[in-house]
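Team,

Forwarding the record for the chain on the shared tracking sheet. I've put the sequence and predicted structure together so nobody has to dig through attachments.
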Amino acid sequence: MNFRRLFATITRSVTAIALCLTLAFSHASPSLAVSSYGSSNSAKTEATDQLTGIQKQTDRVAASAPLNREQTQARSQKGLNEVQADADKDKMYRPSNSQDATTVKEQVEDFLGNITGGN
């Protein structure tokens, strides 16, 4: 009887410690992922500079009087929209750069075909 109580206590203690360590490491892992992102710091600062510019333009537009239709159309012709212009335009999916993309329906059909052995 004494052995069972001791074993149960040890098991509970080890389980509690394992859960605490898992919680601590899972809480710290996002910060570890940030430090391993990319091979150079230039990519990080480049994106930050671009976002800072977009934010400054957004602040200017928000502080100014509302644009009329002609001004809005003229600004939106320069890029994606009045504020963002063409920032990261090359990274966005559009019909012109996604002709070879697989649709969700095709992916699901392929997945189910692999599972069931059908084609």
